[in-house]
Amino acid sequence: MYDVIVIGRGPAGVSSAIYAVRAGKKTLLIGKGVSAAESAKEVGNFYGTGGTVSGAELHSRAIAQAASLGVEFKDEEVNSVEMTGSFTVDTDSGSYDCKAVVLAVGRRRASSGVKNTDTFEGRGVSRCAVCDGFFFKNKTLGVLGAGSYAAHEAKQLMSITDKITIFTNGMEFTGGAPPCGINKQKVKSVFGEAKLGGVELENGEKILLDGLFIAVGTADALDLAKKLGLATDGGYLTVDKNGMTSCPGVFAAGDCVGGLNQISTAVGDGALAGQRAAEYISKTAE
Predict the structure, then answer these.
(1) If pLDDT is split at 50, 70 and 90, which confidence band does 235 have?
(2) Are 3 and 98 in contact (CB under 8 A)?
(3) What's the CATH code of the domain at 144?
(4) Per residue in 56-76, pLDDT tens?
(5) b/e per residue, 163-194, with b = 16+ CB within 10 A?
(6) Does position 141 have pLDDT exceeding 70, yes or no?
(7) Alpha-carbon torsion 282, 247, 131, 101, what sign?
């Protein structure tokens, strides 16, 4: 059991982890891929750099600092966060329990890459199996995606129906052993009238569906927020003055909470969230 799990390896996430571990909390940082800040060629407006520094160098220094303080790292893809008395973070490689969570995964919303999916969102197209799966009991469903996040969503849906197909949209499936059938054809568009009718493949074939769940790429802040029922506003997570979301014990920092999308503000948001998460754990233990 960890005290704090930070999701996201950008400036907000690493800063959160540093402050949480310095407050004496057992801290795990989970993240995969390259953050926007890390990929920056030059950073010239961050305090104390003495000029310009590459995003990769700045990130490397921050990771080394966090590791020297005792932060643990997992290079894994997070698929969901669930409330289980405490919190359970599920990844493509396992699951981890903790007392508080910091979401610092940015705001990127992966495009479905399929025409008309936005048109039918809320009318048969969903981005959250936990949220909306209940409404499709015994229905014929599709999951759009080709990785572990798509596999995770398909497994969630298997509790309400066994009629599920993963559509990889022309990509190779990388989510391990598939939990259901797979269609690797390129998807041209979704179709329907008042509600979703199905998907049309590039070869002209139409496949009837009652629901299509978008799980392209990895879960971002809004995906995780939906699964936890967190309040959002205009595509951003809503937080209070302490960086806590509408769910006690879940904090957020960085681009996913809005504001000035700069490394300096992300570091500040992260520091606040990490410190307040540590204080939350201590207070609830009293």
Answers:
(1) confident
(2) yes
(3) 3.50.50.60
(4) 899 999 999 999 999 999 999
(5) bbbbbbbeeebebeeebbebbeeebbebbbee
(6) yes
(7) negative
Q: Are residues 11 and 71 in the same domain?
A: yes
**Structural domain that includes position 180:** 125-214
196: enclosing H helix or E strand: strand 196-201
Q: What is the mean pLDDT of residues 257-286?
A: 92
| Statement to judge: residues 231 and 98 lie in one domain | yes
Domain end: 158, 180, 214, which one? 214
Q: What are phi and psi of 280, to 5 degrees?
A: -60, -45
Among candidate residues 154, 179, 214, the one where a domain is terminated: 214
Instruction: For residue 260, give Cα distances in angstroms to 59, 112, 196, 250, 253.
Output: 19, 27, 37, 22, 12
Answer yes or no: is pLDDT of 84 > 90.
no
| Buried/exposed 11-32: b ≥16 CB within 10 Å, e otherwise | bbbbbbbbbbbbbebbbbbbbb
Q: How many domains does the chain have?
A: 2
- How many residues are given for the chain? 286
